[in-house]
# Entry
Amino acid sequence: MASMKVNLRDKLWMLIPIMVTMFWGSASPAVKVAFENFNLDNSNVFSILLFAGIRFSGAGWLTLIFSRVVSGKAPRFNKSLIIPTISIATFQTILQYFFFYIGMSIVSGTTGALLSSTGTFFTVIVAVIIGLEIMTGRKFFAIILGMAGVIILNLNSDFELIFRVNGELLILLSAVCYAISNILIKHHGKNHNPLELSGFQFIFGGFVLAVIGLLGGGVIIWPGFSKSIVLFYLMFVAAFGYGLWAMLLKKYDTSQVVIFHTLTPVFGALFSWVLLGENIWRWNTLVALLLVAMGILLINWRSKAADLNDSAEHFSDLDQA
# Structure
């Protein structure tokens, strides 16, 4: 009995990655809820960008506070952080969420969550192209599964492929930007505190998005405290999701942690069903969900020996929120 209690206690840490992937999965439908609460739609692009800028600037400050609590040291910005901050912010926040937020004004929450998850596959593709990783049969098959899921997801009842330039394509472009940002995080994270770097790039990227929104005539009308809670929730998801994930990767074997990323699109579909009333039980949604999840599982399924020799892949699972 005592050994069973010890074993159970040793497994309790698994609740944290499940919680983090639940946060990440809820992000796409939460953005849709925020659009409704703040009266944002695809005809109001600059207001959408202003909203995104406010969200990520707030997330940046929350991340720095979290870093202060975890490390016990006050975050300090210095000259060595200028290039890393600008380069990561360009892809992880500015470009990624420029495409993501505009695309989410068109696509459903379920589609957004599933297409965003393809960032895992694009990270491997980019890493192979620039020579950080070697393409293996397992990785190639995983990418094929993921891309097949994308195609099946966008089939209508007549088996015609529906793929809108201002919708699904923008979400995929955001996933590509996310992949590039992961490579940059891996490169710059060797010499800097990842939490501090994330906080500073969120603040800079959010500021740029907000300025673009304001210069374009974007306006945010405060909908009242109850409807604005979703904005604070989205700040929380970006800040603490990344922070908790980084701490898990530091404490546990990478292969033990990243496997939970398979749950992100599953939670995305479930939250879209609960919060938005979307029909996630269509055959193509379920098949796409299965294929994407299987692909992510294959990408991240590595032995402990591989963990010691191949450190590139785990960056494919840092926050997409």
